[in-house]
UniProtKB/TrEMBL annotation:
GO BP terms in the entry: arginine metabolic process; citrulline metabolic process; positive regulation of nitric oxide biosynthetic process
Family: Belongs to the DDAH family.
Ligase in keyword set: no
Organism domain of life: Bacteria
Catalytic residues as annotated in Swiss-Prot or TrEMBL: 172, 257
Keywords: Hydrolase, Membrane, Transmembrane, Transmembrane helix
Binding annotation for substrate: 29, 71, 76-77, 96, 142, 251
Organism name: Microcella pacifica
Record-given protein name: Dimethylarginine dimethylaminohydrolase
Covered range of the whole protein: 136 to 398 of 398
GO molecular function annotation: amino acid binding; dimethylargininase activity
Amino acid sequence: MTTRDASATAARRLALVRMPSPRLAEGLLTHQDRVEVDVDLADAQWEGYVEALRAEGFTLVDVPHADELPDSVFVEDALVVIGGTAVVTRPGAEERQPETAAAEHTARELGLRLERIVAPGTLDGGDVLAVGDTLYVGRGGRTNAEGIRQLRVIAARHGLGVVAVPVSKVLHLKSAVTALPDGTVIGHPDLVDDVSMFRSFLPMPEPEGGHVVVLDDHTVLMAASAPQSAELIRSLGYRVITVDISEFEKLEGCVTCLSVLVR
Ligand code: CIR
């Protein structure tokens, strides 16, 4: 493991990230048409994303990059962190399954306890949304029923409940919805199968407006592609930091998928 800061394991707020592969443009597409990806711009945007996390006090931990794995930058899909435990996933796309080995290694070096989703279960981290003591888990193209069942068992050991949510319109649950620090679930209604699944749902005006990374109780990180949603969230008393991730959005990535936060 390479850490950007030798004190990483002692810090309270860590962000695992994984440098983009030079083959990023070959990443998988399911719901979107392929458009040209500017790999140099993607590299610059990734640096901007990482810098935004660093500026907010996160210590960056690099999962070793994997040139041969185009989607490996979307590190969120390989690990789900619950307290001091990292659940090593089993991605639903076979091409992405080799991504978990290095993520597991990094999690072990950080001293996290490890759990695993095993065959025939599949689960992508992008399908897991934590809200209080509930894990909403998307049942869509990548996460199957057995993956949800296994996560339900693991979550119960940590005092968390799992609510399974059908996802048919987008790649992952968190391609449709995420949650504000107060637990309000946000998303663009056209992308959500059933908004009544969530205890409290606030519609956002743009599709990308449903994606936030909660940095602390007052601050969220969002993509620059959803300015009206950012304004709406600011009007609720939150600080909103924006980053341009256009090249990752072309590959069905969103702001959550480029990191795994540990705190
Ligand atoms: C994929 O299809 O797997 C990648 N191109 C995009 C993954 C995005 N992951 C995420 O939103 N959690």
